[in-house]
From TrEMBL:
Gene3D superfamilies referenced in this protein's UniProt entry, alphabetically: alpha/beta hydrolase
Keywords noted in UniProt: Acyltransferase, Amino-acid biosynthesis, Cytoplasm, Methionine biosynthesis, Transferase
Enzyme's top EC category: transferase
Residues annotated as the enzyme's active site: 135 (nucleophile), 289, 318
This protein's encoding gene: metX
Catalytic activity: L-homoserine + acetyl-CoA = O-acetyl-L-homoserine + CoA
Residues that, per the record, bind substrate: 201, 319
EC identifiers of the protein: 2.3.1.31
Role, per record: Transfers an acetyl group from acetyl-CoA to L-homoserine, forming acetyl-L-homoserine.
Main subcellular localisation: cytoplasm
Protein name (Swiss-Prot/TrEMBL): Homoserine O-acetyltransferase
Taxonomic lineage from the root: Bacteria, Pseudomonadati, Bacteroidota, Cytophagia, Cytophagales
Amino acid sequence: MPELFFSLPDPLPLESGELLAGARVAYRTWGQLNATRDNVVWVCHALTANADVLDWWPGLFGEGCFFDPADWFIVCANVLGSCYGSTCPLDADPATGLGRFQDFPLLTIRDLAAAHEALRQELGLAHIHTLIGGSLGGQQALEWAASQPDAIGHLVVIATSARHSAWGIAFNEAQRLAIEADATYHENRPGGGDAGLAAARAVALLSYRGYEAYANTQTEPSDDVLRDFRASSYQRYQGNKLVARFDAYSYVVLSRAMDSHNLGRGRGGVAAALAGIRARTLVLGITSDVLFPLSEQHTLAEGIPGAVYAELDSSYGHDGFLLETAKITQALEAFYAAALAE
């Protein structure tokens, strides 16, 4: 499906107190609404993903998959701040005509959800059957379910949290330090900070995978290697791969948005916020995830009324939410079977 765009008619009030004028959301849809308009699946993507969920979540979305466009009306929208079509730091400020770059306003997860809530209303979707997301996407899905409890029927969150941890914030800050150490980042131009972004991605990968994943895939087969190790080249490759498709200014904006995530802010604490979620919820944790450990998934499952908890036994670490689609499908089948039985 072609990419579509929704321009918010009014400046978006941000949680920081600023207004984001000229906000635009890029999105894609697949499938058709049924007669009762109750087959909507809305996907919230992760940090550096885009609105093309069939591309980055194959095996879970697409023909013959659990979420098949033949059965579901699937929506995936790019978050504000991302360089994949929605308003981002590279875009011109309507007031000046110049790119905002480092002056782009602070976004929070709550702001990202608010923009997509505006899109939901624009599309005339009174009810979302299933809202699903992992990592940052899971944070957004939780925030949306907390702020619009009557609009979400089922909530599926994978490898995420009710509040971004000090551990996660520290990882993000290390990545931003790498970007800010690149002098070109401060030139406020397209491509600024690319070398820093590559280094930031190398840092991030340490939290996305883990000891076992690296041991299984990057250990040297020979005892004679003295330099240029597999693990070293892998880090460089992944850093350059991200530079080819993403932007340092967007990376800083969205990592800060992750840091802001706290369902309890203004709601009387995390426990009260989770208790207010009414969607039938599936919480999936990944056994080897060091970024969003199982303890955080337990907090979600124990706090959301009636939530179902399941674990994905995986050696892929946090990235398992993208790679273990067969296991996610099994969990979804059991979850929906229980829902239908009740």
